[in-house]
Design brief:
The structure is a homodimer. With about 240 residues, chain A is of the alpha/beta class. Chain A has a single domain, classed as Alpha/Beta hydrolase fold, catalytic domain (Rossmann fold). Chain A contains 7 helices and 9 strands; from the N terminus they run ββββαβααβαβαβαβα. Chain A has a 9-stranded mixed beta sheet with strand order 1-2-3-5-4-6-7-8-9. In chain A, α4 links the parallel β6 and β7. In chain A, α1 packs across α7. β9 of chain A pairs antiparallel with β9 of chain B, so a sheet runs across the interface.
Chain lengths: ~240, ~240
């Protein structure tokens, strides 16, 4: 893990960009004492393109004493895109413009993305846990598809907050049954790209006995800010 | 309003029983400074029979500085039961033992109960708001049917936490459309006496733009304790 930039933010949080092999990422830490860690999973680009992700990470660090980390998924953000990635994007754009169903295209795109992202998260976690300012335990917060798969293979993740949204592939429902850690599952009641019932069925499918659904009105990007505090308190309950 | 007993509890909360005409109630206050008020609605008997209600009221007062009040609904708790009340109870017991559908019986029981309970809550609120240790604003926490109807007619209630459960009468769905205050709606995912879909439809029906659904695994009485803190923080956000 090589740090490529370092910035002390006005809330006292230290923000550092890093690379780990091909993986670019960002780490936010509240201080020098070992802190529990939140992995923030997003399929899109990194922090510069996602001010809401950065705001959450800084809030977790500044207000709740968590370390937080995000990485670019393969083919996203600053990372090179393969011909397959480009084709999937073009197909998706064309189908959306034509008003055609996008489930199969998303499925074809999402499943391989998750399979590539999960080992990278595990490698990143190995490196992060060697830093003296990271003390474990570890939680996950973010995209459901990556987080679900990660939770089934990575025993160091103790609790997770998932943001629902979009098409639910059959492979995701299957993986959900194997998840046994405490979960908070966030659903936007009027999500433009999501059917409500398959998402409620996904909540139902998670194998854990301790899971809470939080549903709020509004579209995909409209999760209210108070849910960030709810997520932090949920993770604090299970990680501290 | 006549106080009939007074007890300082070990968490510093003052618990007083009162009567207001025919209405028996309990008031919990955190101190002498004017506190915002939570009305705790329950269709069943009062505090002696509902340790969870008492625990919530004391927690709101001791940890969050709210005053909290509960009253016995007509025909419940310490109050005399009419022949109609007794008949409805007997019908319900018989139907449940026979494994017959209870929706119509509950409907016949619940609708008049709500119509009798709501004016009593308003009378109680009038009296409570005259006490120097109650400073308003006012929130509601508890049974959905009473709280929904109360919220449609009582402008002094600024926010509400509803516990879902049981049959959803058509009159309740209609009333829900008229509710415009911020809501937190608690649903037990495996509630023995509740069908999930009509309850999700009820959440959908509430006319307010600021509503959050919290669903947890487990049966009707299994709401996790952390939801009490979530309710208090939600009410604090809107009442303080």
């Amino acid at each position: 893990m090589r740090f490529t930039s370092e910035q002390r933010l006005d809330d006292g949080v230290l923000e550092r960009e890093f690379t780990l092999g091909e993986i670019p990422g960002v780490l936010w830490t509240p201080g020098s004492a070992p802190a529990p860690l939140i992995l923030i999973g997003h399929n899109g680009g990194l922090h510069k393109r996602h001010p809401r992700l950065v705001a959450r990470a800084r809030h977790y660090a500044a207000e709740y004493g968590f370390a937080a980390a995000a990485i670019d998924a393969p083919g996203h953000g600053a990372r090179p895109r393969s011909a397959v990635d480009e084709q999937a994007r073009a197909d998706l754009r064309r189908a959306m413009q034509a008003g055609e169903p996008v489930d199969e295209i998303v499925d074809a795109f999402l499943v391989p993305l998750v399979e590539r992202a999960v080992p990278e998260w595990r490698t990143t976690l190995d490196a992060l846990l060697e830093l003296p300012e990271i003390g474990g335990p570890v939680g996950y917060e973010g995209m459901t598809a990556i987080g679900t798969r990660l939770a089934t293979v990575e025993p160091r993740i103790s609790a997770a907050v998932f943001f629902a949204g979009g098409f639910v592939p059959g492979t995701l429902r299957e993986a959900a049954r194997q998840v046994t850690i405490p979960l908070q599952f966030l659903l936007q009641w009027d999500d433009e790209g999501m059917e409500r019932q398959p998402t409620l069925d996904l909540f139902d499918a998670f194998g854990t006995r301790e899971k809470t659904l939080h549903a709020n009105l509004g579209g995909h990007a409209g999760t209210p800010w108070f849910e960030v505090d709810d997520a932090a308190r949920f993770l604090a309950r299970h990680l501290k």
